[in-house]
Specification:
Metallo-beta-lactamase, Chain A, Rossmann fold, 3 domains, globular
Length: about 575
């Protein structure tokens, strides 16, 4: 397969993130030598990356093409679509186009990164077209689990692509208009070359459900528990859910409380562009601490059990103002994202053991997804009637299933699965994967963006799984030990086993060093390598671990005393 990119002669789509995974969405469209970027998101790191919270796509390919990048259009304000902009923008430095609500979220990120005055941010409203030659992009309003979600009709000389972003067909979304099915149908009437479509819930039958139904369920649950503290946790970006919890508080005679920085940020962003103006201003957790426990309804961040989230701190009795007691209730008004089960169930069990009632989507109707189930996908196909369906926003199994579903059950003429880095030529001619470009992941570290294969991250993983061993050798000019090796083990053993292991390692080091010195004194590198080799061999035999090992050689000049000798003389 060619390693070039034939976008100069046709229309291509190139995902750098979001195909083969859920999250970290970044999609490129190329035509006539120019590129359009849609979304620039992040994903959360898992336990395999100690010290790393966030991961972003590697933009190396589009960085090399930055002079031909006409713009970045953001479909909506979710982190997996907007959360990498402030980390990556300096790599490609193009104009950014957002809705009013997404602008509020983006500006807060740009402020933190010191980029607010550098990034040219343009706000689009009322579904007005954006002309970025050779692309003409028309936003189309769809419902989702946050405000102002926009599908994009991308017109080119080769045809129109409908990029759905994240969506659902909620008949009563509570905030904002319903999905603009008339606009979708009108574009279908004109003719759509390809539908690039969300695959997240392709395995779910029926429809995704309505926010209005969740609101009624939350109100009932809160009213049924009048005597104790009630805490709700959900995704901070779900502004309609935030309003629903406020309505539940009002209906049950409780004060509404926000707990967590990200919730306050989204609340303020929504207020700034005209939403949430019919609810009473929420109280802070400090206010709640001074009120009777049964007179507040708290909404917390951290519904996925994030260690730094407010919900985890409350659950583990580590929050400065909010605690839980027997008889209290915690409602997880959110989906359990695959991969987070262990963390969340650990939290659920800890609270259950303290006689705290835990309610999740598994127990009650407290959450609906923001992504389309199978009947909604069929409806999208009927409206848009594309020549080709290109599944995105999903793991491989999601993409493959939507491709099958679109053709076999949705009546679509064709579907094509692509993964990150694939160059799919949509036109002219039959759709075909014609090339590939470099892709990867970058870890967001305090030191900056780090390639996932970097030695630093490898060392962290090794430390987390195997511990660390530090060895100091004090030798004389002849490379002979002048005192016992100093050995520090962490995360390898403990108690009596640690003492015995330390002694065994010291003996093995002395024995190995005796073999290194020949007629000429061994150099520092040879001594360090010999000590490391001997120590690792012993630790592996005893513990089956392979600790990260560092050896320092301290060489004394002739007549120089060791620290122990100096101390003894002083005493």
């Amino acid at each position: 397969m060619s390693k070039t990119h034939p976008h100069r002669d046709g229309l291509v789509i190139v995902p750098l993130g979001g195909c083969g995974e859920i999250g970290m969405n970044l999609t490129l469209y190329g035509v006539a030598g120019k590129w359009l970027m849609v979304d620039c998101g992040m994903t959360f790191a898992d336990e395999s990356l100690p010290g790393v919270d966030l991961i972003v796509p590697d933009p190396t390919f589009i960085e090399s093409e930055a002079k031909d990048l006409v713009g970045l259009v953001i479909t909506h304000a979710h982190e997996d679509h907007i959360g990498a902009v402030h980390h990556l923008w300096e790599r490609f430095r193009c104009p950014v186009y957002v809705t009013p609500f997404a602008e509020q979220s983006l500006n807060a990120k740009l402020d933190e990164a010191g980029l607010r005055g550098d990034v040219p941010v343009h706000v689009f409203e009322n579904d007005d077209a954006i002309d970025l030659d050779p692309f003409r992009i028309t936003p189309i309003g769809l419902t989702h689990s946050t405000l102002e979600m926009k599908a994009l009709a991308i017109e080119t000389r080769h045809g129109t692509v409908m990029h759905t972003g994240d969506w659902k067909l909620d008949k009563d979304p509570l905030m904002g208009p319903t999905s603009d099915e008339a606009a979708l149908k009108a574009w279908g009437d004109k003719g759509v070359l390809a539908l690039v479509c969300d695959s997240t819930n392709v395995f779910d039958p029926g429809t995704s459900g309505s926010e209005s139904d969740v609101r009624r369920a939350l109100i009932d649950l809160v009213k049924e528990r009048p005597d104790n503290r009630i805490v709700v946790t959900t995704f901070a970006s779900n502004v309609a859910r935030l309003e629903s919890v406020a309505r539940a508080a009002e209906a049950s005679g409780r004060a509404f409380v926000l707990v967590g920085r990200s919730l306050w940020k989204f609340y303020q962003a929504a207020r700034a562009v005209g939403y949430l103006d019919t609810i009473k201003p929420p109280l802070t957790d400090k206010d709640a601490a001074r009120m009777p426990r049964n007179k507040t309804l708290l909404l917390c961040t951290g519904c996925q059990g994030e260690p730094r989230g407010a919900m985890a701190r409350v659950a583990m009795d580590d929050h400065p103002n909010i605690d839980l007691r027997p008889g209290d209730t915690v409602i997880f008004s959110s989906k359990i994202i695959p991969g987070n089960e262990k963390t969340l169930y650990r939290m659920h069990n800890a609270m259950a053991l303290n006689d705290i009632e835990v309610i999740s989507e598994k127990d009650h109707f407290v959450h609906v997804s923001g992504h389309p189930a199978r009947e909604e996908l069929k409806r999208m196909y009927e409206l848009v009637r594309p020549e080709l369906v290109v599944p995105v926003h999903g793991e491989a199994r999601h993409l493959i299933e939507q491709a099958r579903f679109a053709v076999e059950e949705g009546g679509m003429p064709a579907a094509q699965v692509i993964l990150n880095g694939d160059v799919l030529r949509l036109a002219p001619g039959e759709p075909e994967i014609v090339s590939e470009v470099p892709v990867g992941r970058l870890a967001v570290d305090p030191a900056g963006l780090v390639v996932m294969a970097a030695a630093m991250l490898q060392h962290r993983r090794k430390l987390a799984g195997n511990g660390v061993m530090m060895i100091v050798l004090v030798v004389d000019a002849d490379s002979e030990l002048v005192e016992d090796p100093r050995i520090m083990l962490a995360g390898v053993a403990e108690g009596r086993e640690m003492a015995a292991l330390t002694n065994d390692v010291a003996v093995a080091i002395e024995r190995e060093l005796g073999k290194v010195n020949g007629r000429r004194p061994a150099g520092d590198d040879a001594l360090a390598e010999a000590a490391s080799r001997a120590a690792r061999r012993v630790v592996k035999q005893v513990t089956s671990r392979r600790p990260l090992t560092e050896v320092e050689v301290v060489r004394l000049e002739e007549g120089e005393k060791t620290a122990n000798e100096s101390w003894k003389e002083a005493v």
